[in-house]
Amino acid sequence: MSATQKLQQHPVYIQAQDKASYYVNQLDKELTKYPVLNNLEQRTQIPKAYAVIGGLVLIVILHSLNSLAAPVSNLVGWGLPAYLSFKAIESPSPHDDVQWLTYWVVFGFFNFLESFALRLVLYYVPWYFAFKSVFIVWLQLPAFRGAQTVYFSVLKPVLLNISSQNRSVAPVPTTNSQE
């Protein structure tokens, strides 16, 4: 019996293989909700779970090449959300509109803040763009409702505070003396 066959019969190997298979099947069930991925699977004959895992691995590899990290991170934040926003606009349901409007507000605010401190952040956080991409995916995924969480816990209180300050300093209307 070869070493490979011994390894494949080892209980730990079998248990790890069963767990991996279970998680891939769970991922496949979740990905079935997305018609784009179902269509991709039919066209390419590559299981959608493997395509998504492969895409994520590719993104990780591209993030490891420092010169590609920023464009890949921005593509993650813009590509799929732009397409899904288009689909939301065309759908009759308002629920997906709220999801993507909230995402774009949070994403825009995040990019605005990033523009001020990017050099400093890059100096102190070596894998910043990888972390940014994970954060952006968290914002996007409806299962986590990341964009809504950030909006309601951070942005809305700040914007309401600014709005209330602007109202308190609003100019007093004057009467028109040319009557």
TrEMBL record:
What keywords appear on the UniProt entry? Membrane, Transmembrane, Transmembrane helix
Q: Does the keyword Methyltransferase apply?
A: no
Tell me where the signal peptide lies.
Answer: none
Xref: InterPro entries: TB2_DP1_HVA22
Q: Is Iron-sulfur given among the entry's keywords?
A: no
Topology term for the membrane: Multi-pass membrane protein
In which compartments does the protein localize?
A: Membrane
Which Pfam families does UniProt cross-reference here?
A: TB2_DP1_HVA22
A GO cellular-component term linked to this record:
membrane
Q: What is its main location?
A: membrane
The highest taxon in the source lineage is Eukaryota
Transmembrane stretches in the record are 49-70, 101-125
In the record, the note on similarity to other proteins reads: Belongs to the DP1 family.
Show the PANTHER family listed in the entry.
HVA22-LIKE PROTEINS, RECEPTOR EXPRESSION-ENHANCING PROTEIN
The name under which this protein is listed is Protein YOP1
Which species? Candolleomyces aberdarensis
Q: What is the lineage of its organism?
A: Eukaryota, Fungi, Dikarya, Basidiomycota, Agaricomycotina
